[in-house]
Write a structure and sequence with these properties.
The chain is mainly α and about 450 residues long. About 80% of the residues lie in helices and about 0% in strands. Helix 1 packs across helix 6. The radius of gyration is 21 Å and the shape is globular.
Length: about 450
């Protein structure tokens, strides 16, 4: 009975997964679709990429500022609600404002990138770590299927929009119709979060990690103690940034994000350079394989450890880079498809790891503070990714340069993960706890 109680995620846990899925999908849709598919309507992909990059960098600064007092915020859910409302309004504007009003559209595109980053990638991810501290890999592995899924349907979105235009529908009406299913999903997920999700599962009759072996009283006591401990965490923003292992993990998360987001943000140009490949078909194959990859890497994360799962991802990066570079030199479309599938396999996991690293190698009471530092550092790479890939495509290296970049990023990631040491995190934790007069214990012993 004990094991059975831990198999599922609970009704509200599944609702949280749906909320996460729609949040990640919304981030991908309203940042990527204008950049990848509709760029020509809004001044070109390079100009749109500039707004994307600057907006993401601003969201990173805001996250670092929030990290200094995140443990003192009484309700991350309330923060998610406030930011989410503004993000949904901007998403509607990006979808509906005509491209003839491009300056106004730039303002809302700029704002949606800031706000939806703070809503989906920051606030919702913190809630996920608080609900599933031990099973965050599996939960995020399912939720981050949103990334390959969204990249898969981007081909259908493109066909829908340009198909309507070809049938005589005016350009802006076609764009609005194309966005409607994603707007409905985004707003629906946001409403689910408002109605059914709290900061902690115990606040709505649930259990951490859906572990029913605890009594309701014991679960509530653990939650209350964690809230108290957060206020006196020894892992201040300064201490986090001084930890070498934090940087090894955060930069690796960033490199994985950069390779995945950057490559997929220009998937239309990359796949379009091979005349024998059908963009919509390839993107659907990418969606299926990416969903499987995200799920499997999430299971590996929970079962044998975050470090090992991340190591597999950076090795996949190296392979994707090598195969993709060979494809561009030989003109073999099948090799390019294989390379893009490998990128999709670790794409979903790329946003999983920022949560997993913070939850896996630090204490529960330290999670929100560490995540609030890991996520913005990783997203610096996310912010510059489309611009880097766009510049490489425009350079003499062209598409080959993209895959050489992915390969080199993967090699650097392998080196950083080999240097990461969970035991050293515990050693530093002991030092800070001893200095603060806190009791030393074995809570961080044996973290995989």
């Amino acid at each position: 009975m004990e094991n059975k109680s831990k198999l599922g995620f609970g009704a509200r846990g599944w609702i949280l997964i749906v909320v996460l899925f729609t949040g990640f999908m919304s981030f991908q849709v309203f940042s990527n679709f204008p950049l990848n598919i509709l760029g020509d309507f809004y001044g070109g992909s390079q100009k749109v990429a500039m707004f994307y990059t600057v907006a993401t960098l601003i969201s990173i600064v805001l996250q670092i500022v929030l990290s200094t007092f995140i443990a003192k915020i009484k309700s991350v859910k309330k923060m998610a609600a406030m930011v989410g409302i503004a993000a949904m309004i901007c998403a509607v504007a990006v979808s509906m404002i005509p491209y003839t009003m491009v300056t106004v559209w730039y303002v809302f595109y700029f704002m949606v990138n800031i706000l939806i980053n703070l809503y989906a990638l920051f606030s919702l991810s913190i809630i996920a770590g608080q609900w599933f501290p031990r099973r965050k890999g599996t939960v995020m592995g399912i939720a981050t299927i949103a990334y390959p899924f969204t990249n898969g349907v981007i081909g259908l979105f493109s066909e829908r929009v340009y198909g309507l235009i070809g049938a005589g529908v005016d350009n802006m009406s076609a764009i609005r119709i194309g966005y409607i299913p994603f707007l409905v999903a985004a707003i629906g997920g946001f409403l689910l979060m408002l109605c059914f999700i709290k900061d902690y599962p115990e606040q709505c009759g649930g259990y951490r990690d859906n572990d029913h072996t605890l009594t309701a009283e014991k679960a509530k006591a653990i939650m209350e103690q964690e809230i108290i401990d957060k206020r006196t965490t020894v892992w201040t923003t300064k201490h986090i940034f001084m930890c070498r292992d934090f940087w090894f993990a955060a930069v690796t998360c960033g490199l994985i994000l950069c390779a995945a987001v950057g490559t997929m943000s220009m998937s239309s140009a990359i796949i379009g350079s091979f005349e024998d490949l059908n963009f919509a078909v390839i993107m659907m194959v990418i969606a299926v394989c990416g969903a499987i990859g995200s799920w499997i890497l999430g299971i590996i994360d929970t079962a044998i450890g975050t470090k090992k799962s991340m190591m597999i991802s950076v090795i996949l990066m190296v392979l994707a880079g090598i195969i993709g570079a060979i494809a561009t030199k030989t003109g073999i479309g099948a090799l390019l498809a294989i390379s893009m599938i490998l990128v999709a396999a670790f794409m979903g996991a790329s946003s999983n790891y920022t949560v997993s690293v913070a939850a896996q190698y630090w204490r529960r009471e330290d999670f929100s503070g560490v995540f609030a530092c890991v996520n913005p550092i990783a997203n610096i790479f996310n912010a510059i990714a489309p611009s880097i890939i766009a510049m490489l495509i425009a350079s003499k290296l062209q598409i080959t340069g993209v895959f050489l970049f992915v390969m080199v990023a993967g090699i650097v990631g392998v080196i950083l993960m080999l240097m990461f040491n969970a035991a050293h995190v515990k050693k530093v934790d002991d030092k800070y706890r001893q200095a603060a007069g806190k009791v030393l214990d074995d809570a961080l012993v044996g973290r995989k």
